[in-house]
Amino acid sequence: MTSLPAEPGARRLGLVIDLDICVGCHACAVNCKEWNSGGVAAPLTDLDPYGAEPLGVWFNRVHTFEAGEGAASRTVHFPRSCLHCAEPQCVTVCPTGASYKRAEDGIVLVNEELCIGCKLCSWACPYGAREYDYDAGVMKKCTLCIDKIYNETLDARDRVPACVATCPASARHFGDLGDPQSAVSTLVRERGGYDLMPEMGYAPTNKYLPPRPRRAGSAATPAELAPAVPAGSGGFLAWIDRLLSD
Amino acid sequence: MHPALSVILFTTLSGAGYGLLAWLGVLAPAGLLPADRGFGAAALGLALVSVTIGLLSSTFHLGHPERAWRAFSQWRSSWLSREGVASVATYVPALLFAVGWVVLGSTAGVWAGLGLLAALAAAVTVGCTAFIYQSLKPIQRWSNGWVLPNYLALAAMTGALWLAALMQIFGLDPLAGTVAALGSIPLALALKVAYWRFIDGTASRSTAESATGLGSLGKVRLFEAPHTSENYLMKEMGFRVARKHAAKLRRIAIGLGFVAPFALTLANLALGGVSAMAIAVIAALLGTLGVLVERWLFFAEAKHTVTLYYGQSTA
Amino acid sequence: MPKSAAPARDPDVPLSEPVADEVKYSTCYMCACRCGIKVHLKDGGIRYIEGNRDHPVNRGVLCAKGSAGIMQHYSPARLRKPLLRVGPRGSGEFREIEWTEALDTATRWLGAIRASDPKKLAFFTGRDQSQALTGWWATQFGTVNYAAHGGFCSVNMAAAGLYSIGGAFWEFGEPDWHHTKYFLLFGVAEDHDSNPIKIGLGKLKGRGAKVVSINPVRTGYSAIADEWIGIRPGTDGLFVLALVHELLRAGKVDADFLARYTNAPWLVIDGEGAADHGLFARGPDAKALVWDRRRNEPASADDPEAQPALRGACTLPDGRRAVPAFERMAARYLEERYAPDTVAAATGIDAAAIKRIAAELAQAAFSEAIVLDQPWVDVHGRHHASMIGRPVAMHAMRGISAHSNGFHTCRAIHLLQMLLGAVDTPGSFRYEPPYPKPIPPGIKPARPAPANTPLAGAPLGFPQSPADLLVDAEGKPLRLDKAFSWEAPLAAHGLLHLVVANAWKGDPYPIDTLFLYMANLSWNSAMNTAGTMQMLTDRVPGSEEYRIPRIIYSDAYYSEMVAYADLVLPDTTYLERYDCISLLDRPIGSADAAADAIRQPVVRPDRDVRPFQDVLIDLGARLKLPGFVTAEGAPKYPGFYPDYIVNHERRPGLGPLAGWRGADGTRAGQGPINPHQLERYIEHQCFWRSEIPAEGRYFKFANRAYLDWAVRMGFLDRAEPVTLQIYSEVLQRFRLAAQGHGPVQPPPEHRERVATYFDPLPIWYPPFEEELPADQPFPLHAITQRPMAMYHSWGSQNAWLRQIHGENCLYIHRATAAAHGIADGDWVVVESRHGRITVPAKLMDGVNPSTVWTWNAIGKRKRAWNLDAKAHEATRGFLVNHLIGELLPERNGYRYANADPVTGQAAWYDLRVSIAKAADVPVESEPTFAALATPALAERVPVLRYGARFRPGRRRP
Ligand SMILES: Nc1nc2c(c(=O)[nH]1)N[C@H]1C(S)=C(S)[C@@H](COP(=O)(O)OP(=O)(O)OC[C@H]3O[C@@H](n4cnc5c(=O)[nH]c(N)nc54)[C@H](O)[C@@H]3O)O[C@H]1N2
Ligand SMILES: Nc1nc2c(c(=O)[nH]1)N[C@H]1C(S)=C(S)[C@@H](COP(=O)(O)OP(=O)(O)OC[C@H]3O[C@@H](n4cnc5c(=O)[nH]c(N)nc54)[C@H](O)[C@@H]3O)O[C@H]1N2
Ligand code: SF4
Ligand code: SF4
Ligand code: SF4
Ligand code: SF4
Ligand code: SF4
Ligand SMILES: [Mo]
Questions:
Q1: What is the 3-state secondary structure (H, E, C) of C732-774?
Q2: S-S: B2 plus which of A46, B239, C150, C203, CB 3.0-4.6 Å?
Q3: Cβ separation of C803 and B72 shorter than 8 Å?
Q4: What b/e string do you get for C458-476 counting C-beta neighbours within 10 Å, with b at 16 or more?
Q5: Which ligand ends up closest to the CA of A34?
Q6: What is the CA angle A102-A105-A109, rounded to 5?
Q7: Is the peptide bond before C434 cis (omega within 30 degrees of 0)?
Q8: How many CA atoms lie within 13 A of A205 on its CB side?
Q9: What is the pLDDT averaged over residues B19-45?
Q10: How much is the average pLDDT of B244-269?
Q11: Per residue in C33-50, pLDDT tens?
Q12: Does B227 lie at the interface with C, CB-CB under 8 angstroms?
């Protein structure tokens, strides 16, 4: 239903992505594609898959940016998927009620049965998180793996989004950002997790953890080593004897 | 934004149609239009046909046109839905008004009321169309106060030009139409220029830095896009028009859509004569053509924030 | 469809749809990392491939490649039936044949060779994970011309490690991810341990340990490193030895570790010109001698009572002078030429940074030493109350190995580890069983065998002196690839990159059949790509005969190499066969446990293809190779590979799999055959793991508990200590031979080279390409990196992965590009001494300004992999291989291989180039090659709707 839930539920499921650890391996993106290719939004159609212009539906894409100048410049890998915003216009602009936000957990979904493929929701998403399936003629998007995180046929430990489960570097975390006590909320507090484009006012649920400052030297260590105290006798290596325990 | 032909056609045609409908609904009751039935039929017919063509063409870009009817359901929150509802609702007073004028030959009394109602509904519909764009935050060049007046004025202008042309065709005294046109063209031009001034003059609200949150590290540049292959987002929202090219098109739009029609209409007012009909028709066509170009630019010049993730530093 | 336009409430999403009808465990093969997978099967199709959480390698995660396994399995490039060439070689014109015809043909060809001169079969197996089988097959066939891909991959790492510390970075060890506080990562973009290294880096970053990446390019791991050192390619040796210089200058070394566990105290004979100069002084029992500081007399190196000196010259009873290896070493690296200020310019790293890093290393190793209260006993029976660790770990791969100075650079890194006492201690580099091994391992390369006879031993091994080389009386090579000859004496993995060129030249001798498996040798693993294709198709002048008479190839897909085969043996995909990841081969597992694994067929092939291992065993039986047939001449393994995996024994009790041995499956490591072994593996998620006893997990080279365990497991013959070698006597033996000592000496033309590069202590020299004409027309370094989401050539057929890496470009530093007038997106002409390519350019900041680079193996031959001829892999993608020559320019009348002079490792990253903006934009990246014809392959679907049928709520066929 296109109007947002009357009173937003307390549970706000989402992802926390650690840009300090992300190595840009694309595992999350491909595993997302793999899981969802057989899930509630299946298929994630690929046009011209073996030709000159392959064009596929992906719910998660990994960018790489360079930031800063010269020696201080940095390379940062940046995975991008639906942020399951609290104030998502992708939902309110939808003329059919296909686009909706669940009251119970804040997950934003598309009901493909109702979708007329007008694409307006993708215009309304500042983050480019909605993917149109030209073949199916409907809009698709990150489902937060709703058919995995609630799937009672799976081992409880497997009820996390595919991208989180597969991230080799553990740069992705899943949890309830509506609960200040949750592990993800704590992580956001401790690491200064932030919103993308806060100026849009969409109040994203997903948070990003900033890259930590780089560490060249540290106060703990001297800028260079002091020469070994040359002993009176014993030539240039006399010090080695002192290091040997008898 | 990718300028989809169907959408450009739709907004231009229906805009003109609603404009014409509005003028008829206001001027006829005010007695400023001859009660000629043939003229009434033609004028209202043209308005409703172009509106209808516009509405139909807007369904061409849908993935599921057969489900288009569902778009009426979300009028509570969605401007697109409201536009749908308003556009359909407009038919009711418009058709009744037509019955009064064309069948019963009256535009007075209750029929006048229906005329005014049709005019209002037309304005509301155009307003909804404008709000669809004006409400899209990710596209700063749309989400600003200039869009609504622009849409209304351009609809009025094209409507007036068509009206003037029709009156000439039916050999009626074109004064009302001519005055309406001469009044609305400068207004529309002023608003359009103001809009362009505004989008050229306002700094981008979002940047690559705010999109990534990496501003603290310094200037942010895309190193590698996620995929080497195309994707929907860039096809739909990555469209870019070169500044020089855009400037040229703006001049064309101004010349075709505003200056030329204004000059021609003015000439008609001064000279009148046998060529007047041809001139008025040309003026209407040029005006419509100009608005098509303007509408193409409205999309082509609009930048979406998603492009900030694909190498643009501002949107 | 609900009638109401706006449903009053959210629609029901099927949340608990069963994911699979059946889950099968196996091992991934989208790369060589060998992660455990759970394959979810639904209606006979593959619904989802998931990482196995319990698996020691990947602990539940899957990388991008592994997550795209479904697309690999259903690739339209899969071969469907055996093929016999009908058109000219390289055209791609084939006739489909039955397996009987294929096997008869191969048997006929190979049988004839074996009956005349077995070494005329060159059997090279590329990215082979069954080398224990293929190597043994070659041994039984009787050809010395066997190797896998190690020679062009990372033999420098393996050899330098095995000749220095008895283990190696390359898969045989790992950093102590739990305790390391300071981590140096040299030249790694992805690694063979793709997932473990990512898991580990995540851990380190989480713990706040410092990660330093030494790499000309700042992507991937280097991007998240706490410090990035954008070194100039080929100069790591200088950087590392400068660190050594600093530590020695400051006296920051672990003297006790050196004295106890390394050969630092061993006495090196000092007799310039003598036949024993530079060798170790040895006692009557041939044991090396040390100088006992207390008794002030020589003592045996393994006398636990002795207190060995690390410095000071001494005179032996027989009057010869000798000094401890440590002093020889220290004297060298304390020289000013290794000082940070001296090497700064060459490495492009400022001296202050080098000095600081040395200080940080010392700080972490000695001031932040960690103590695990875990008592242990060393081989000499000394009790240690705890395990004292140097929490400094290092890892290095192809950024080091793919240079012509890689062997010595890698040895320099091992030296640095030894000086810090940071080898297999808590927090440092750790061995993975079955390592450490004796230094070097005892196996020596077998010599050629006469007709119809197996080799005396394995074709590959570890020479310990010139006498072990495979050369004839004149010192000419006995192997086709010239491994173990004076040109590459320690080529422990062979030289796959020279096989085609040498076979074509008939140098050192012509061969009959080139039998290849799993190596795309006409393309991304070839140097001089164009030339290689030429050689493969070149005919004997004035005849229809090809210079390389016959080529048999087994591939699973329509790769660039298939087109050059006369007979193609189509393999299955990794989800359709049994495989065995054996401890006799390239082991998996971790520093805390030994492990091995299998693959099991999770789906049945829908094509007429057979597992290559089955085919090889079948051929072995048809050829009546010893070991492949019973006494009666019947096939020994009628059940083919699974049969072999269970029933084959190297020596009694030792087979391909170490788990669940013994009739009742209760024995680990060694034990009688267990007919139900495979069932046990399948019950246990297709892997076996056996933990090292707690007191044996560190100091393995001298840890009684570990060594005893390793002997029980069959990893070692004797529980003897492994003494780490800072000074390599083996290298000195070769140098002495080159100086005219000993029975086996190099021919004159090779002497200078051998004498120079067989230095017993690590040296640095510029990569050979830099020694080219002083008027360097090629000022820039050109290197490649592994893309994390693509595997060499074989990922491009993958509908998902090719969207991520469907084309590549040349990355150039902004400043360098500006200096050349090159803008982002321009096409550039890249030229080397060998060739030229024209390719798209992209600018960046995070790269050493003297270096350009691209992603490896993205470029494809037109129509290979059953891709559309217009696919960007062929029209925009490119290989730098077109620029790399397999031979160095002539030097006093001879052209050596473009390789490391010690191991023969291919020097991919020595490449030097010049760049210029292309005068006019080409239609396609250049060079271009003719499109291949394609045999009957599956049709390429225009729209791929994979998984639609699994969608919950959908009616299914
Ligand atoms: N410029 C440059 N060149 C390089 C490198 C570099 O860094 N830069 N790296 C070098 C290194 S380290 C290596 S290891 C080589 C790798 O180069 P290659 O050894 O050629 O490896 P791949 O490209 O993976 O090709 C292996 C072949 O195995 C086939 N194959 C895949 N799966 C199967 C299967 O299940 N069965 C069978 N029978 N065949 C299969 C594939 O189709 C492919 O044809 O490249 C080398 N070349
Ligand atoms: N995804 C994926 N994983 C793979 C493979 C793959 O193709 N794809 N291939 C597998 C194979 S066969 C191999 S051999 C391994 C190789 O794994 P890696 O060793 O990671 O191989 P490369 O990508 O060649 O990484 C070489 C790195 O060294 C850097 N480098 C180049 N020259 C120098 C130098 O002189 N000094 C220093 N310090 N750095 C330098 C390069 O910038 C690059 O980052 O990866 C294996 N894993
Ligand atoms: S899987 Fe993890 S490390 Fe890899 S790109 Fe995704 S978030 Fe980054
Ligand atoms: S990220 Fe985009 S699609 Fe997702 S909820 Fe926010 S606005 Fe909607
Ligand atoms: S595309 Fe579908 S979901 Fe998106 S706004 Fe249109 S109808 Fe709603
Ligand atoms: S939560 Fe699920 S759908 Fe969303 S990005 Fe991760 S894997 Fe994809
Ligand atoms: S690293 Fe990736 S591709 Fe390689 S084995 Fe593991 S999951 Fe498979
Ligand atoms: Mo390799």
A1: HHHHHHHCCCCCCCCCHHHHHHHHHHCCCCCCCCCCHHHHCCC
A2: B239
A3: no
A4: bbbbbbbbbebbbbeeebe
A5: 6
A6: 40
A7: yes
A8: 31
A9: 94
A10: 95
A11: 999 999 999 998 999 999
A12: yes
Nearest CA to ligand 5 atom 7: A115
**H or E element: which one contains C116?**
helix C99-116
CATH (residue range A13-209): 3.30.70.20
Q: Letter for the amino acid at C142?
A: G
The DSSP bridge pattern shows strands C550-554 and C513-517 to be: parallel
Token pair of C534 as six digits: 């030429």
Find out whether the beta carbon of C194 lies less than 6 Å from any atom of ligand 7: yes
**With b meaning 16 or more CB within 10 Å and e meaning fewer, what string describes C514-532?**
bbbbbbbbbbbbbbbbebb
The CB-side HSE value for C266 (13 A sphere, CA atoms) comes to: 23
Using CA coordinates, name the residue in chain C closest to B74.
Answer: C6
**Alpha carbon distance A239, B242 (integer Å):** 72
The token duo for C181 is 């506080």
**Is the dihedral angle over the CA atoms C451, C453, C454, C455 positive or is it negative?**
negative
Distance from CA of B110 to the nearest CA of C (A): 35
Q: CA-nearest residue of chain B to C811?
A: B223
What local confidence, expressed as pLDDT, does residue A219 receive?
67
Q: Give the residue from C452, C458, C520 showing the smallest Cα distance to C483.
A: C458
CA–CA separation, A225 and C362 (whole Å): 8
Phi, psi (deg, nearest 5) at residue C361? -60, -50
Q: Three-state SS for C72?
A: helix
Strand C836-844 and strand C810-813: the pairing is parallel
In angstroms, rounded to a whole number, what is the distance separating the alpha carbons of residues A238 and C258?
Answer: 16
Report domain extents, chain B: 5-310
Q: Checking DSSP bridges between strand C392-396 and strand C182-186, what pairing results, if any?
A: parallel
Amino acid in the structure at residue C113: I
Query: Would you tell me which CATH number, out of the four given (1.20.1630.10, 1.10.3290.10, 3.20.20.140, 3.40.50.300), belongs to the domain B5-310?
Result: 1.20.1630.10
**How far is C360 from chain A, CA to nearest CA, in Å?**
6
Q: How far apart are the first and last CA of chain C?
A: 22
> How far is the centre of ligand 5, averaged over its atoms, from the C-alpha of B307 (Å)?
21
Residue B70 and residue C5: Cβ atoms within 8 Å? Answer: yes
Within 10 angstroms of residue C663's Cβ, the number of other Cβ atoms is 12
Split at pLDDT 50, 70, 90, the class of A220 is: confident
CA distances from A234 to A230, A231, A242, C247, C436 (A): 9, 7, 11, 19, 36
pLDDT exceeds 70 at position B251: yes
Q: What is the mean pLDDT of residues C526-550?
A: 96
- Distance, CA of B96 to CA of B102 (rounded, Å): 10
What share of chain C in percent tops pLDDT 70? 98
Are A29 and C13 a contacting pair at CB < 8 A?
Answer: no
Token pair in block for residue C812: 């150039």
C651 CB neighbour count, 10 Å cutoff: 8
The gap between the terminal CA atoms of chain A, to the nearest Å, is: 81
Residues of A in contact with C19 (CB under 8 A): 151, 153-154
ipTM: 0.97
The predicted pLDDT at position C957 comes to: 35
Q: Which residue of B has its CA nearest to C804?
A: B227
Estimate to the nearest angstrom the gap between the alpha carbon of C367 and the chain centroid.
35
Distance CA C496, CA C904 (A): 10
Q: Which residue has the tokens 């019955």?
A: B99
Closest among C437, C587, C455, C528 to C908, alpha carbons compared: C528
CA C874 – ligand 3 centroid, Å: 29
For residue C831, give the 3-state DSSP assignment.
strand
- Quote the pLDDT of residue B188: 97
Which residues 776-805 of C have a C-beta within 8 angstroms of B? Answer: 802-805
Q: Give the residues across from C282 on adjacent strands.
A: C288
